[in-house]
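Memo to structure team: turn this sequence into structure tokens by end of day. - J.P.
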Amino acid sequence: MTFSIQIKDEIASEPLNEIENRYLLLGYLFVNATVRKEIVSVSLENASIARKLFKTFKYSYKLEPKITVRTQKKFYLKKIFIIEIKDKTGVFLSEFNNLEFFDNESKVAFIKGIFLSSGSVSDPKKSGYHLELTFADENKALFVLNILNSLEYTFKIIKRDKGYMLYIKAGEEISDFLKLLGAVNSLFYFEDIRIYRDHKNMVNRLNNCEQANYEKSLKTADKQTEMISYLYNNDYLSLLDDKTKQVAEYRIKYPEVSFQALANIMSNEINKKVTKSYINHHFRKINEVYNRIINNEQANE
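Reply from structure team:
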């Protein structure tokens, strides 16, 4: 069972009041119904949704739906449920052709029907976050988009080869939408995966930062070692005071450690508190002496 089917089964099994059931039915048929005069027909594969639609026709609209089950053998065996109703009184078709929403409750129920008919959500375990509603007709897509906007959802619309798609990709927005649909178990599943992925991404970001800092420290240490070696090999160490010479000696002795680590080592070995800022101060002195010498030598060339 896919994650989308799991969500749809959960929505279809949710107990709703009569108004909600009517608007859910209208939402489903808005996308996926064929109307010829007074006959409305719809075909679908999901048995729980077919049962939901059948009961709503029968008990909410007092219509006698005709249901046909066909077995299709194409790659795998599946059942197709075809529901037909003949609306002689015109009550249902009047509501269907003149959709009106009196409150958010009716809008939410309508959106539930839309999702049952054309919605899908990618499984967060297998791919990124993506929820979509598809439509063959642009006007219908825009109609639903306006309802979603009124419910404060920021879906985007895009044209596809065979119609239009409304979609959201942010994990938090998808969570909120699953809550709107009343798919509580699916919401918990989605949030568990999202929390795990976000934690994993955070750990990866921290590791990347630590690695970047380590590489930066190595480059800095290499440059410092290079400067000290140059001063030593060319008899310029006398230009440094005793404390700066001592820091230089420890850098040569421990060429790859950070400033803080070097401060800790010196504190332990000379029995005197040495801070990171102390180390940094003396390396600035080494850098100043080195640059002054290099500039002088270049000027004399």
